[in-house]
Every structure is written in structure tokens, then in C-alpha cells.
Design goal:
The complex is a heterodimer.
Chain A lengths: L3 E12 L6 E12 L3 E5 L6 H8 L7 E6 L2 E2 L5 H10 L1 E4 L11 H11 L4 H14 L15 H12 L6 E5 L7 H16 L3 E5 L3 H6 L2 E6 L2 E3 L1
Parallel strand pairs in A: 3-8, 3-9, 6-7, 7-8
Antiparallel strand pairs in A: 1-2, 1-4, 4-5, 9-10
Helix pairs in contact in A: 3-4, 3-5, 4-5, 5-6
Chain B lengths: L2 H11 L1 H38 L4 E5 L4 H9 L7 E2 H8 L4 E13 L2 E8 L1 H8 L3 E4 L10 E3 L1 H7 L6 E4 L2 E9 L9 E5 H7 L5 E2 L1 E6 L5 H11 L2 E5 H44 L1 H9 L4 H40 L16 H28 L2 H5 L3
Parallel strand pairs in B: 4-9, 6-8
Antiparallel strand pairs in B: 1-11, 1-12, 2-10, 3-4, 3-11, 5-8, 6-9, 7-8
Classes of the chains: A alpha/beta, B alpha+beta.
């Protein structure tokens, strides 16, 4: 098995089709080993989130390649990329991005549905994941009834719904108070111990200090 | 979790919008069903009434317009432009049984009803009337009235009650057994009495006739037209000309229903487009957690399909209810062209199924464009939407 699970080659992203174009990434090449805990840091607006979106197949690069487990997702169709997002990648966002009309349990089940987990198995597994993030008693709560920290933990449980190899997190503690931040970081560390590859975009020095690898993005390029 | 459960949660999230959009399609489908049902019932009823006329054909003044032809079927009073002499000449033709009618109007409890002057014994035999209660006329000049079941029920009348026609008292001496024709809603009095109280001495409105041999209908028609200045119309001919008019009425009704449906369909498009716009972020989240464009498309199409299914079911129910209430009002409206048509509303299973299917199809078609727009969003543009 290839030890590099995420690899980018000369990744470029240009936004805008008119004369005003934004060169968000200017040839980023990086490798992330399987099972590692890495951070992508850098000032706001310099391309960190764009890099994460391209790695996660949420957006297509203008140029260059993204390999997930050896497969170049830049060449895949939208449906094939969706399949990879469902099974191999879990996302955690700064603003949690839970579906407001579903309960915590159902949010996790929805992700399982797209990962083609049979409805019978969904509930049991979703409850296990909620227990993993310490929210077994909040299964039937809607996001609006949960604190920010709790919502982020549900969102982490959702990211794990289909047992993906990779977890991509965009400022997961950026919207939390310090107590909630510690709680979330504790869970991330525990998840990492299970062998998941975790890549986090962050401004937090505390997270960056825990990381095994740190990539700094400035002006759309990787600072070595 | 299943797509259907997700769709149900989405629909019920904004209950107000759900209800109002559903109302749009429900009203559209209800008017569709009500108008179609009323139109269909008018045709059925006219056909039934035409066959209930008895006889093989009617003899009418040669200048009778189509409006008045409808009047014969629906039992409305029509002009008395034939003279009794014509009846006598026609009645003398061998092989022909003919009865005259003089139709006029009067009012009971401020509602207009039709009075028919007829030859009691001949008409009873011709029509095959039987008595439900009381007695039938004993003579040609008995000043009394025999009513039908419809009149009895409508005005709560019984044998022994008295009606006033043109200022004169007419005791109700008998009630006919139900005939399921206009005879049920008409006041029957002897012809001579009718001619006197309505000051139409020697006049009649039209005649009904039976021939002894159907193969010789044409011969009889010629013979009749030779002895009097009249037109002969078979019940079929009469029916066809009325149905032709009703056909165009129905087309108009269907066009109105069509407009209602188109408005409802645009209501769904509008709701779904708003939903796509509002839920861009959610669409992005679904994509981020692995939903393919196909799944997003399916979610939105299902949502609009459910509007159609529910709207269709409720609309069909509401439509039939409306037609049940409206049909009698149309029937009793004296100014309406179809006065006297005792319309009921029957539930046509084929109409029910077709309407619900139609509603679902229209709604799905209305949801296609919004669903396509939703499926086309890229995850990052959707998720970045604030």
C-alpha cells in the first residue's frame, strides 16, 4: 500500500472568468502520508481553504493534479468524485454545517445514506459515533438545541460516518470558545490514534504544535 | 435515513410555505375536477333526460331555436306557438300516438317551477306514470295539480296542500312515483285548465310521439309535416344538438381549469426555485457528505412530486365536494341555460386516478428545472454561500 495518501502536483486555482481573476493557488505540490496529522496554516485569504477544497474534491483545480490514494481526482467525473467524498473523505467545517431540520443522529445517518449504508445499520453506527464524541444523550437534539462545541462534535461524528481514511477540517475550532475548543481537540486527537489521516486548516498555534506536519500557504504557494 | 424521509423533513421545515404551495396545486386540481365533473354531469344528465322523454320523437314549431330544444329536454317552459288544431290533425294520422304539452311557468315559495298542461289519461298511458300517493285526475277539466317526487321533496308538499297558479287555487290531489325525468320536478295540470289560466286558449308548446313501426319513421315525419307547419326531431337529433352546445361549454370550462393548473404549476416552480436558492448551502453540505448530483436532483423532484400527489388527492376530494354543492345551484338557477337539469355529482374513478396522476406529472415537470439548477451547483459554490 502506498504510504502517501494525499498528493498534489503543481496545483493551481484561478477564480473568476472575467478580466478580474484571482490566482488563489500558484503551483502547490505536497504529500501527506497515511495516518498522519498535518496542519495547513497561513494568513487569511492566502489559499489554505482553497487547497483543502481541492484536496477534498469540493472544487476542481484550474491546473495540476490531486491524488487521493493514488487516484487522480482531477480527472474524475462529478459523480465519481462524489463517491470518493462519500467513502474516503470526511469534512468538518468552521460553521459546523449541520442540516438544521435533522436531529444529530439523522445528520450522521444522512451521510451514511450517501455512503450506501443500509438503513438498518445506520442507527446503531450513528449512536456509536455520537458516543465517541460524548454526545450519546443528544441523539434526538436538533442543531439549534446544541451549543457550538456540541454541534462541532456532531459534525466530527458525521465526518466519520462512513469510516473514511481521511478527515479534512477547515478551522474546526475557529468558532468555539476555549473550553469547547479543548473538548473538540481531545476528540480529534483520539480519532487520530485510530489511524485516520487528518489535515486541518487552522489559525490556531495550539493545533499546529500538535501536528506532525505543518504546511504554510502564503500568496498561493507553499512556504518551505 | 432515506431520501424520502429527508424530503419529508424538507417539506415540513417551512410549514407555511408548504401549506400555501399545496393550496395552489390543490385549488388548481379542485377547479379542474369540479369543472370537468360539472360539465360531465351536465352531459350525462341531459342524455338521461332526453331518453326519459319517452316516445320516438318530438314535434316542435318549425322556427324553434336550439335554446328551446334544450328547454324541451330540461323541462323548461317554451313558447306556445303551435295551435291545438295541428295536434288534432297529427293525432289523426294512423299508427301514431301523440300527446300535446303546454309548458308555462309559475312560482312556489318564490322559486320558479314549470307547469305542464297535458291530456291526463293519454299522457299517463304514454309516459307510463304510476302514483306514489293520492289520486290521478278524474277528468280533462279538473282544476287540480299532480306533482312529482322532486317538487314534493323540494318544497315539502303533500297531498291535500294547495298551490296557487296565476291567482287560482289548485289542490294537490296526487304525487307521481319517481320517473327520474323532468316529470319529477314539473307541476302537471290538465291542458284545458292550463290554456285557460295562462290565457293560451287553443295553443300548445310541443308534442311527443310514438310510432307503431320504427322503420317507417321517415314516412310518419313526412306525413306530420304535410298536415302542420312543424318540425320533427328524433330524440337523438335533439340530444345531439344540445350536446353540441354543451360540448363547447365543456371546452370553455376545461380551458378555465387549464389556466388554474398552469398557475398552480408556476406556483410550484416558484416555490422550488426559492427553495433551491435558500438551500444552496444545504445542497453544498449534502454534496460534501457524498451526495451525487443525481441524488440532489432526485430530492428536489420528489419534493415537487409530493406537492402534486397531495395536491391531487386533496384537490380531487375538494373538487367533487364543490361540484356536489355547485351543481344543484347551477341546476336551480332560473337564468341558467340549463334550468331544470337536476344535476347530481357522481364520483368517476377514472377521473380521480387520471387527475391525481396528472397532478403528479405536472408537479414533477414543474420541479425539473429547479432540481436541475440544484444538481448543477458545485459543492464549493454552494457551501461558500452565506
Amino acid at each position: 500500500m502506498n504510504n502517501i495518501i494525499i498528493k498534489t502536483e503543481n496545483l493551481e486555482k484561478i477564480y473568476g472568468k472575467s478580466q478580474v481573476k484571482t490566482h488563489a493557488l500558484k503551483g502547490v505540490s505536497m504529500e501527506i502520508p497515511r495516518g498522519s496529522f498535518s496542519c495547513i496554516i497561513g494568513p487569511s485569504g492566502h489559499g489554505k481553504s482553497t487547497l483543502l477544497h481541492l484536496i477534498g474534491g469540493l472544487d476542481k483545480p484550474t491546473k495540476g493534479d490531486v491524488f487521493i490514494d493514488g487516484v487522480n481526482i482531477a480527472e474524475l467525473s462529478k459523480a465519481e468524485i462524489a463517491e470518493i467524498r462519500a467513502k474516503k473523505i470526511g469534512f468538518v467545517f468552521q460553521f459546523f454545517n449541520l442540516l438544521g431540520n435533522l436531529t444529530a443522529l439523522e445528520n450522521i445517518q444522512a451521510a451514511m445514506m450517501f455512503g450506501k449504508v443500509a438503513p438498518k445499520e445506520q442507527k446503531e453506527r450513528a449512536l456509536e459515533l455520537l458516543a465517541l464524541v460524548g454526545l450519546a444523550d443528544k441523539a434526538n437534539a436538533k442543531p439549534g438545541e446544541l451549543s457550538g462545541g456540541q454541534q462541532q462534535r456532531v459534525s466530527i461524528a458525521r465526518a466519520l460516518a462512513n469510516d473514511p481514511d481521511i478527515l479534512l477540517m477547515d478551522e474546526p475550532t475557529g468558532n468555539l470558545d476555549s473550553e469547547s475548543e479543548q473538548e473538540v481537540l481531545k476528540h480529534i486527537a483520539e480519532i487520530h490514534k485510530t489511524g485516520k489521516t487528518i489535515a486541518i486548516v487552522t489559525h490556531s498555534n495550539e493545533i499546529a504544535q500538535q501536528a506532525e506536519m505543518v504546511f504554510e500557504v502564503r500568496d498561493g504557494t507553499l512556504k518551505v | 435515513m432515506s431520501i424520502l424521509k429527508l424530503v419529508a423533513r424538507n417539506l415540513l421545515r417551512r410549514k407555511g410555505r408548504f401549506v400555501f404551495t399545496l393550496l395552489g396545486i390543490t385549488i388548481g386540481m379542485a377547479s379542474f375536477v369540479a369543472l370537468l365533473s360539472i360539465g360531465g354531469n351536465m352531459q350525462n344528465e341531459v342524455t338521461r333526460q332526453a331518453y326519459a322523454l319517452g316516445g320516438n320523437f318530438v314535434i316542435v314549431p318549425d322556427d324553434l331555436c336550439v335554446y328551446n330544444q334544450i328547454g324541451i329536454i330540461t323541462g323548461e317552459a317554451i313558447s306556445e306557438s303551435l295551435d291545438f288544431g295541428a295536434f288534432e290533425r297529427i293525432a289523426a294520422i294512423e299508427g301514431l300516438t301523440v300527446i300535446p304539452h303546454l309548458t308555462q311557468r309559475t312560482a312556489i315559495q318564490n322559486a320558479t317551477v314549470t307547469v305542464t298542461g297535458m291530456l291526463p289519461a293519454e299522457t299517463k298511458a304514454f309516459r307510463g306514470w304510476e302514483m306514489y300517493a293520492g289520486e290521478y285526475f278524474a277528468s280533462q277539466d279538473q282544476q287540480a295539480v299532480v306533482i312529482g317526487q322532486g317538487t314534493r321533496n323540494r318544497f315539502d308538499l303533500e297531498v291535500g296542500d294547495e298551490l296557487t297558479i296565476r291567482g287560482e287555487a289548485f289542490p294537490i290531489i296526487g304525487i307521481l312515483a319517481a320517473t327520474n325525468s323532468n316529470d319529477d320536478v314539473t307541476l302537471h295540470i290538465p291542458l284545458a285548465i292550463a290554456q285557460r289560466v295562462f290565457e293560451r286558449e287553443g295553443r300548445i308548446s310541443f308534442m311527443s310521439a310514438i310510432v307503431d313501426n320504427m322503420e317507417r319513421v321517415d314516412e310518419y315525419a313526412t306525413a306530420i309535416m304535410n298536415v302542420a307547419n312543424v318540425n320533427v326531431a328524433t330524440n337523438e337529433q335533439l340530444l345531439n344538438s344540445v350536446l353540441m352546445i354543451l360540448g363547447s361549454v365543456n371546452v370553455t370550462l376545461q380551458a378555465v381549469a387549464g389556466v388554474a393548473l398552469i398557475a398552480a404549476a408556476f406556483g410550484i416552480i416558484n416555490t422550488m426555485m426559492t427553495a433551491v436558492f435558500e438551500r444552496r448551502r444545504e445542497i453544498g453540505i449534502l454534496q460534501a457528505i457524498g451526495a451525487k448530483g443525481r441524488a440532489i436532483f432526485k430530492i428536489f423532484v420528489l419534493e415537487s412530486g409530493i406537492y402534486g400527489l397531495l395536491g391531487g388527492i386533496i384537490g380531487v376530494g375538494a373538487g367533487f365536494l364543490v361540484s356536489m354543492f355547485v351543481a344543484p345551484i347551477v341546476a336551480q338557477n332560473n337564468e341558467a341555460m340549463l334550468m331544470g337539469v337536476t344535476m347530481g355529482s357522481s364520483i368517476d374513478v377514472q377521473l380521480v386516478i387520471t387527475t391525481i396522476l396528472f397532478s403528479v406529472v405536472i408537479s414533477i415537470v414543474a420541479g425539473l428545472y429547479p432540481a436541475w439548477k440544484a444538481a448543477k451547483l458545485t459543492p464549493v459554490e454552494a457551501i461558500s454561500y452565506e
